[in-house]
Amino acid sequence: MVQNGQVNKKSSKWLRLAVGTALLAGVSGAVIPDMADAAEVTVSDDGTYYSGLWKKDAQGVEGKDWKFAADNLNNTVAFDGFQMSYDHYCAAGSNMSDGEGTPGDEAVTGNTLTITNSKMWGKVAGGYSTGNQEVSGNVVTIGAGTTVADGGSLQIFGGISKSDSQNIKDNTVNILTAIKLNALKGGENSNYSAGNNGNTLNVAAKGVETEWFGGFETINFFLPSDIQVNETMLKVTNDYGTDLSGVKVGVAAQSGVSLKQGDTVNLLESQKLSNAPAETTKIADKDVKMIAAGNVLSDKEYTFTLGATDTALTATVKSITDTAGGAGNTGDSEVKNVIGDDNAEASAIKTSQRVKSLVETQAAAATVLNMSSDMLTGAGFTQAKTAAAAAQAGEFAPFAAMGGSNLRVKSGSHVDTKGYNLNVGFAREVKKGNKTYLLAPVVEYGRGNYDSYQNNGIKADGKSRLWGVGVMGRQTNSRGLYYEGSLRVGRVSSDYNGWLSSVTHASYDSDSNYWAGHIGVGTVAKINGKDTLDTYAKYFYSQQDGDKVRVKIDGAADDQIEFDNVESQRLRLGARLTHQVNENSSLYGGVAYQAETKGEDRATYHGNETAAPSVKGSSVMMELGWQVKPGNGPVSVDLGVTGWAGKQRGVIGNLGLKWNF
């Protein structure tokens, strides 16, 4: 399906609007009126068909009963999982004024009828008028899973009138699945001569057939992903033929089309074909170009020429160009061909925002890994020390630290990561002379959801997860001077989902090993009886191993990108002031400066270097917290919040727990 992950605007809007809407709900040229007082119903079986929303024409039409939505304006009616068991007529809106067949004098406009996964029989219309009133702006969509009921026939109309009215105009019919119809018309009146009058047909499936056809001023063909050479989109089977006088024809595509230059498909077949247009027209007021998914770097841009024989209207691929459009500009007639000699391709890969989007995931994984390091060296050490000090001498005591974060990292574009981390371990404290040694094996887990944003509008999202094991330790002397360190190893997994353009959706999964550690030095000095000041310097290092991943491109062949190792080196200088409120609680606050000196995410694509998102730069941190031991129980709690500004910005909340048995 063609949809966008909040892709950009401007000149690509026509293609996204046309293709995406054709696939999901149909393309409509109608202007939908105000939705006030509109009715909405879903018809799923015979039992709900006679719901209060519907009215019955007691006079009947050719011995049949019509079923209508209750009003003439803006009704939304959906048939889903419905089975019509006999020849019946239905419309989304009508100007029937009551259930006795009395005509109203209102226009019938803005009604929508969508049919999916149903077996239908009879006549279906977007709007129905009992007289000469206007029938306009109605939309009928025949969606996936819809077939004709066994033994029956089906006729589809954008609008229909019981009189000889010519005022049936600007209605839209969308055919999104292969189906065999008895009639397919934009408008129909009592004389079978309603005219074209701005009615539009959008065909987004091959293998559509109808016996009777007409009443459309515009026909847009959206070639499906499985279209092959010489296959037919729409076939008219009556012996009288098809006259396309004054009809405009557009061609576009669904993602995944793989036609080659010179390939021809049949847009419309008929026993006799006359007055076929010689050139494609426009969809949404833009030159029609066909954009299909290509690979990570570029899409395939097709242009078509129309042709005609006595029995078929054809479209032939005139040219195929690799275009480097992103989510914000795919389909733009001015995008440049980026595939040329080796130097041209290498340059295109180096500057491509599409390729860079895939690499940003590594920055998200590094953020989750760094947050785990910060949790360990902050709340982790605090709780380990508290647990060990309260335990029997030489015994291990359990502790835990957990926290949530919402951080943005500037990487040339930016990556937003929301996540949480958990450290669980057992701490033991041993005193020798004037020195105290703290040792704690730990298990860590981290998880984050991320959104990455490129400057040209490409947006992607995914998840990063890690788990690992390690050990941390600290030595403190009687004067408050301490040295500390940690070492952990584990596994990190990430995934990626993003729209590289309006037609190209890419995804991948990545798994790799990591190792991380830190060293630090600090001193804790008493300022007075209740206040202590901890000043420190800490160095953090982490490495996430590289990975070669298979990139899945919806509607096209898989691609591949190879990630290098991701290293992070951070130096942090800071101070924390702790004030003892009473025996059971303390408040603390602190500030720190951090410099990231590494932090580049490098990769190669088709043997060439990609853009390298970088998180190198400076950040500042402020923290506030409360450490409390409720009552005389074995539990102690550390609640804290940390704010970051600079290269890294956002908020982290943490909770530390210690339980002595």
Distance linking N and C termini = 57 Å
Cα-atom radius of gyration: 34 Å
Per DSSP, what share of the residues sits in E-state strands of 2 or more residues? over 45%
Net shape: elongated
Strand order across the largest sheet: 2-3-5-9-13-16-18-20-23-29-28-27
Give the mean pLDDT.
Answer: 81
Mind describing the biggest β-sheet? 12 strands, mixed
**Helicity range:** under 10%
Task: Explain how this protein is built.
- With 661 residues, the protein is mostly beta strands.
- It has 4 helices and 45 strands.
- The strands form 7 sheets. The chain has a 12-stranded mixed β-sheet with strand order 2-3-5-9-13-16-18-20-23-29-28-27, with no helix packed on it. A 12-stranded antiparallel barrel has the order 30-31-32-33-34-35-36-39-40-43-44-45.
- A hairpin with a 3-residue loop joins β30 and β31.
- The protein is elongated, with a radius of gyration of 34 Å.
- Residues 1-38, 46-64, 285-289 and 328-341 have low confidence and may be disordered.
